[in-house]
Design goal:
Arc Repressor Mutant, subunit A, 3-stranded antiparallel beta sheet, 441 residues, binds S-adenosylmethionine, alpha/beta
Length: 441
């Protein structure tokens, strides 16, 4: 069913919700045609276009999804509604499985006519009846489509599961299979490290004194996940997490959300920006494009800095060669070696840690980023747009609790954290990722 079909179906069947009405789907359609791109269709693979970041598209999309989700919660039998929620664990499990056995790449190479499960079985070595059941579970939830009985092909959401390498390259070098494939890496982590760590969730929350986080109970380690990743045997986890962090930003967010976090033009030429816990330097890449007169230091733990070196060799080797960008091994619980930086930029760092550790990290930093905020949805929708608005951040909040006993913080919580560590909250720059600007007290 195309967009107009969904819209007219909704109009015919309910007059209840503000969001799921013709106006919003019409806004979507006109925004796509303004950008000369096709409005989304479930039947075609995802083609990124400018329209994805068009503010009117984002606003209309949020309203439609918030309305549709609320409509389901309202009209579905509460028993069925809860049952379907309890079963969502299998969304995680089946997504992890298809990614693990490279089905997205196999179907990509098969093309639009799709492939019978028997043929998928001969490539993966997985029994075809299991494949049919898993793929049907996902196709029933609009991930992949069953083009004829037992024949599956890609659709719009499933096309995002395709990794960045061919099947042959993946088979030749399995450890690198998630490199440059942020979304598959993220979903695989969800079905593996995150799912394992979620088993002791209830036990931890009832008795938080027993370990640092649910992750530590599940993996029988006292190390934080970042240190655990460095142990022999955990190389694939480390590669996946680096991959998931590296490009999630590129795929999900426009670069302005980083660059608007600092007023780089107001800083002195050659002023230093320290990208603390910078991973592969995604933030620095975006900042350097917009503020080329500044110098940058990307700090992280040794294995991540080694991986970052490879990324910069590919993306901007000159910047490292001339010293404009420096990659530095630094543990942020030890004293900051760069004393006179203009800005210490922390993205997605503080939320990984409980308050006590967050206070230790915040000894010499100026900018951090946290919870998204934006306009409220109209009545009768949930003001935070429910699953589509605050939804991702509440999921992230649970994942952070599970992996590190970290948390997404509110403005008040950030203000308090700053106050307790000698920093005054100067400014809040709203956006998809809100930037909180702190200066020393
Ligand atoms: C959630 S990622 C954020 C990466 C990056 N700031 C970004 O926004 O893409 C957290 C980063 O913190 C790093 N990290 C964890 N513990 C650290 C420590 N003790 N010292 C320095 N970096 C650390 C991890 O290696 C990882 O790259």
């Amino acid at each position: 069913m195309d967009l107009e079909g969904v819209s007219s179906y909704c109009r015919r069947n309910t007059s209840f919700l503000h969001g799921c009405k013709y106006r919003d789907t019409a806004v979507l359609q006109s925004a796509y045609s303004k950008n000369n791109t096709e409005a989304p269709s479930l039947d075609t693979t995802f083609q990124p276009s400018l329209s994805e970041f068009d503010p009117s598209v984002i606003a209309a999309r949020h309203l439609i999804v918030a309305a549709a989700t609320q409509l389901i919660a309202t009209v579905q039998s509460p028993v069925e509604f809860l049952q379907s929620h309890a079963g969502r664990i299998y969304d995680t499990v089946t997504l992890g499985f298809v990614i693990d056995v490279n089905i997205p790449e196999i179907l990509n190479e098969a093309g639009t006519q799709g492939l019978h499960v028997r043929q998928i079985s001969s490539i993966t070595g997985v029994e075809s009846s299991y494949l049919a059941r898993v793929l049907r579970y996902l196709a029933t939830r609009h991930i992949f489509k069953e083009v004829s009985p037992d024949v599956f092909a890609h659709n719009r959401p499933s096309s995002m599961l395709i990794k960045a390498k061919s099947l042959k390259a993946i088979e030749e070098d399995p450890i690198s299979r998630f490199d440059n494939a942020a979304i598959p890496a993220f979903l695989h982590i969800a079905s593996d490290e995150l799912l394992n760590s979620s088993v002791p969730f209830t036990s931890f929350v009832k008795n938080p004194g027993q370990a640092s986080a649910p992750f530590n109970i599940a993996y029988k380690t006292s190390k934080k996940m970042w240190e655990w990743m460095e142990e022999p045997g955990n190389e694939l986890s480390a590669r996946k997490i680096t991959a998931a962090m590296k490009d999630t930003g590129d795929a999900m967010y426009p670069p302005e959300i980083f660059t608007s976090g600092i007023d780089g033009d107001a800083l002195k030429t050659n002023g230093v920006v320290v990208d603390v816990g910078g991973g592969s330097g995604l933030v620095t890449l975006a900042l350097k494009k917009v503020y080329p007169n500044l110098r940058y230091v990307i700090q992280d733990l040794a294995p991540t800095i080694a991986a970052a070196g490879k990324v910069w060799d590919e993306k901007d080797p000159e910047a490292v060669k001339i010293g404009q960008v420096q990659l530095q091994v630094h543990n942020f619980f030890t004293p900051q070696p760069i004393k006179d930086a203009a800005v210490y930029f922390l993205r997605l760092i503080i939320h990984d840690w409980p308050d006590e550790d967050a206070r230790k990290i915040l000894t010499s930093k100026h900018v951090t980023e946290g919870l998204g905020s934006g306009p409220s949805a109209p009545y009768p929708l949930l003001p935070n747009f429910g699953a589509v608005g605050a939804g991702f951040f509440t999921t992230l909040d649970m994942a952070l609790l599970t992996m590190y006993n970290g948390k997404e913080r509110t403005l008040e919580e950030y203000t308090q954290l700053g106050r307790e560590s000698g920093w005054k909250l100067e400014e809040v720059k709203p956006g998809k990722l809100t930037a909180f600007v702190f200066t020393p007290v």
